[in-house]
Write a structure and sequence with these properties.
Layout lengths: L1 H6 L1 H4 L1 H19 L3 H31 L7 H27 L6 H30 L6
Length: 142
């Protein structure tokens, strides 16, 4: 079970990246044009994104147990692992905030909801980048 769950990490990791980013974009659209449809869409995207982030983070921790990582990549792996967990937590917090405050809210609740959503997108971006560095090397994006 550990090996299987670890080996599905490359498959699972794409879901939270896509879902959390689409949720963040939809939340941004809500600034100019809010609607009950967009509120429901953001909540569902965050639900799926948070759950997939939990699965991706869990499978990544199992993969780290069975996969060899060069000694010069250990620090990157540790950052990637903890940022993956932070992404899962931020995704769950964003989902809870969007579900609780999906309607027209103002002030602190509005900015907390947006902050959680956009933080989850930022964290998944950083964690994903570090994962790509581990797999493809430091110059993978240049």
């Amino acid at each position: 079970p550990t090996q299987f769950f670890g080996h599905v990490h490359p498959l699972l990791l794409h879901f939270p990246i896509a879902l959390l980013w689409v949720a963040a974009v939809a939340e941004g659209i809500r600034i100019r044009r809010d609607s009950p449809f967009l509120a429901r869409a953001v909540t569902w995207l965050l639900a799926l994104g948070a759950l997939s982030a939990v699965l991706a983070a869990g499978s990544g921790w199992f993969l780290a147990l069975i996969e060899h990582v060069r000694s010069d990549e250990r620090a990157t792996l540790e950052w990637h692992r903890w940022l993956g967990l932070a992404t899962a937590l931020a995704g769950c917090l964003a989902w809870a905030a969007a579900a609780r405050w999906s309607g027209p809210v103002t002030g602190a609740r509005l900015w907390l909801r947006r902050g959680f959503v956009w933080s989850a997108a930022a964290l998944v971006t950083i964690a994903g980048h570090l994962g790509a560095v581990i797999v493809w090397g430091k110059d993978w994006f240049s």
